[in-house]
Design goal:
By secondary structure, the protein is of the alpha/beta class. It has 2 domains: 7-61 and 329-436, Aspartate Aminotransferase, domain 1 (Alpha-Beta Complex); 65-327, Aspartate Aminotransferase, domain 2. The protein is 37% helix and 17% strand. It contains 13 helices and 16 strands. It has a 7-stranded mixed β-sheet, sandwiched between helices. Strands 11, 12, 13, 15 and 16 form a 5-stranded antiparallel β-sheet that branches. A hairpin with a 2-residue loop joins strand 11 and strand 12 (364-372). The longest helix is centred in the C-terminal third of the chain and has 22 residues, at 330-351. It starts with 6 loop residues before the first helix and ends with a helix.
């Protein structure tokens, strides 16, 4: 392709060679990024409140990550850990073992993506328990590969036309307090949605054949749905009583996104197994399963693995991310950011009738938009309009939710005050605009 690069001629190239099955939120083609800022091929600056969908918790092209990638690339880009292993994977596994919740020994298995981590964590759970059933939840998102797609709740666009799906997956309601599936009110409900698991055993999946429950501590694609404090302790206790493994899918909610390294820590629950990906390596393709050592080590040799699992360049990026969290006190920054965002969003909720609910943990926050607060009719069109307004003003935000009416916020945790305030001002202008219409 000759001539000056523009969004238009890149779009033409895309239409020729990329399947339309891979869609994009914007028509802007990014050339570079730094911190919370992105720049397209025409030189326009964008504030990033999407984070590559929760991947850039430490920001774009952080100097420590770039330096680590360059250094490792000059030494070794690949040898396949299953053939000739290397130190970066061992060091990162050691770090993950240390930061993962649970006062017990753990082991690690690397993968390339969140979906691969999910596929492997289910393999591990089934192998160890010698049981096959898996319980997932309404509004869940666990990936796009066969088993991960089966675990995912929303049909369009993720599952439509891609069946048949994997067997032995059962789905129960989640603790969606704003739209309670049991039509109850918290806290008077006494978190009946967790107790429902006992009834679920009777009519859907017997505990004797159920290997694990897999759950997002804060549902990501499903709308940042955040259960009350009692929910996960109750679920975990029922699992323990019935010899069922508790899997926390922390692919989107982990790596500091909620102000703690893993969101499940807010609930004081120690999962048997955890999946982690996205912000683990600041944009490099890397994921992991971290779990109880007795479970992880029960797998026979060669039962797990993959050609690119634990790539040395990606692992060095992951180690750099760990250093950034420590040196920049990023968890504390995330906590402060979350407090600031919640205060602002709560103020907006008082001002804009279109905001029905503000929810999340730390800076992993969302606005659920509704046409009417009494009926809670979802305002999906308004959410789409807000995303488009913000992108036109060069702020990248994303919608989500099973009903398509939730705005989620995923800016880098170390975003500068200026970028943060400029972005929030654009969002506020956008809320004003859609409220008028």
């Amino acid at each position: 392709m000759g001539g000056k690069k523009t969004n238009t001629n890149l779009a033409e190239l895309r239409n020729k060679f990329i399947s339309p099955g891979v869609a994009s939120v914007t028509g802007c083609y990014v050339e570079s990024g730094k911190g919370a800022l992105l720049y397209d091929v025409e030189g326009r600056e964008y504030i990033d409140f999407a984070g590559g969908i929760a991947v850039m918790n430490v920001g774009h092209s952080h100097p420590k990550v770039v330096a680590a990638i360059k250094d490792q690339a000059e030494k070794l880009t690949h040898s396949c850990f299953m053939v000739l292993p290397y130190e970066p994977a061992l060091k990162l596994a050691q770090k993950l073992e240390a930061i993962a919740p649970g006062d017990f020994r753990k082991s690690v298995v690397f993968a390339n993506s969140g979906a691969e981590a999910v596929e492997n964590v289910i393999k591990i759970a089934r192998y160890h328990t010698k049981k096959t059933g898996i319980i997932a939840f309404e509004n869940a998102f666990h990936g796009r590969t066969l088993l991960a797609m089966t675990l995912t709740s929303k049909v369009k666009p993720y599952k439509f036309g891609f069946g048949p799906f994997a067997p032995e997956v059962y789905r129960m309601p989640f603790a969606y307090c704003y739209r309670c599936p049991f039509t109850l009110k918290y806290p008077k409900c006494d978190v009946a949605c967790a107790d429902y698991l006992e009834e679920f055993f009777v009519s859907h999946a017997a505990p004797e054949t159920t290997a694990a429950i897999i759950v997002e501590p804060v549902q990501g694609e499903g709308g940042f749905i955040t259960p009350p404090p009692e929910y996960f302790p109750k679920l975990a206790n029922i699992c323990k009583e019935n010899d069922i493994l508790f899997i926390a899918d922390e692919i989107q909610s982990g790596m500091g996104r909620t102000g703690k390294m893993f969101a499940i820590e807010h609930y004081h629950v120690e999962p048997d197994l955890i999946t982690v990906a996205k912000s683990l390596a600041a944009g490099m393709p890397l994921a992991a399963v971290v779990g109880r050592k007795d479970i992880m080590d029960s797998i026979h040799p060669w039962g797990l693995g993959g050609t690119y699992f634990g790539n040395p360049v990606a692992c060095r990026a992951g180690l750099a991310v760990m250093e950034i969290f420590e040196e920049e006190d990023l968890l504390r920054k995330a906590e402060v950011l979350g407090e600031h965002l919640r205060e602002r969003f709560t103020t907006w909720q008082e001002r804009f009738e279109v905001i029905g609910d503000v929810r999340g943990l730390g800076p992993m926050l969302a606005l659920e938009l509704v046409k009417d607060r009494e009926t809670k009719e979802p305002a999906a069109d308004e959410a789409k309009a807000l995303v488009e307004f913000c992108i036109q003003k060069r702020l990248v935000i994303l919608s989500c939710g099973t009903l398509g009416n939730v705005i989620r916020i995923l800016m880098p945790l170390n975003i500068g005050d200026d970028e943060l305030e400029r972005g929030l001002a654009i969002m506020e202008d956008g809320l004003t605009d859609i409220s008028k219409k």
